[in-house]
Amino acid sequence: MDVFEAIKDRRSIRHFKPNPITDEQIEKILEAAIWAPSAGNLQARDYIVIKDHDTKKKLCESALNQHFIQEASINIVVCANEERSAWKYSGRGRELYCILDAAAAVQNILLAAHSLGLGACWIGAFNDGAVSKILNLPRGLKPIAIIPIGYPEQKPNPPPRFSLKDVSHINRYEAKRRTL
Amino acid sequence: MDVFEAIKDRRSIRHFKPNPITDEQIEKILEAAIWAPSAGNLQARDYIVIKDHDTKKKLCESALNQHFIQEASINIVVCANEERSAWKYSGRGRELYCILDAAAAVQNILLAAHSLGLGACWIGAFNDGAVSKILNLPRGLKPIAIIPIGYPEQKPNPPPRFSLKDVSHINRYEAKRRTL
């Protein structure tokens, strides 16, 4: 699928068919993730692939009971590896770069899933401590996204976006009034 | 260009030809940025497009004198809009979601530029206060990336990546030893 088409047509999918996705699809999606850029190529991020029903159920409870976490064939939890980034970049690594490394990988995962005909959703609202406990995350690994992935059972309309004029500035910032 | 090809073949470009890029190209790139997902569709991010030579020079000085900031036809500075995210999500919005919103847009910008035959680089190492002053950023707008964009003058080899086995875990985290 063309890059611009994937970027523009991707939607957040919150209802999934029961059909399972294959290990080959999971690999293609993770391969897209690892090729995201990262600060100093440290790749300060890790991926937990959740296939187990019981773990999905617990994750769902840790994330405001968003039911589609359980419904999805798999979930990928993307974690920022604070230690790996701090090792080279100290505070800025721990507080910023590893978050950016992880987020770039999440965006690739969403585009890859969509281009394979799958649906996904970037969930950021969850209890960090609960997720860390469920997934046995060590200190220094911070979960930043839960991504349910499966065959989409819905085709949502695109939500509105600010116009380019509203959010872009030439050479320096100028105050603008904008509404959606 | 195919999504997977764009994701895998994109490189960080740090040498540019003098040829200018067009406003139409800039618009396509920003259009890709605005279609990135965001927490609650708040789109807590803004874009400053730097065309002016003097501003590029100052930006370059604020970012460890990475010369290609000046060399590039344009730079896009992507900012996290802390206020917009905090308005709905309080601390988690200000400290996390707006950073993620901005990072997802950066990744789309890099993929869009590459697929148009342009080169770009995600620069995270700069003096936040200096950049804010140069670009007249109001309080609550945090610059998270400087992205020089232009026609590439180099074709770097892909840097090594961790293997999928090294960075992915099934159902729960397990300690692994990994080296690049």
**CATH domain fold name of chain A:** NADH Oxidase
Provide the β-strand percentage band of chain A: 15-25%
The average pLDDT of chain A is: 97
Sheet of most strands of chain A: 4 strands, antiparallel
List keywords for this structure.
180 residues; four-stranded antiparallel β-sheet; homodimer; alpha+beta; NADH Oxidase; 5 strands; globular
Task: Describe the structure in your own words.
Two copies of one chain form a homodimer. With 180 residues, the first copy, chain A, is α+β, with helices and mostly antiparallel strands. Chain A has a single domain, classed as NADH Oxidase, CATH 3.40.109. The first copy, chain A, has seven helices and five strands. Chain A has helices at residues 3-9, 23-34, 53-62, 68-71, 82-115, 128-134, 164-167, and strands at 45-50, 74-81, 119-120, 141-150, 168-170. Chain A has a four-stranded antiparallel beta sheet with strand order 1-2-4-3. The model of chain A has no long low-confidence stretch (mean pLDDT 97).
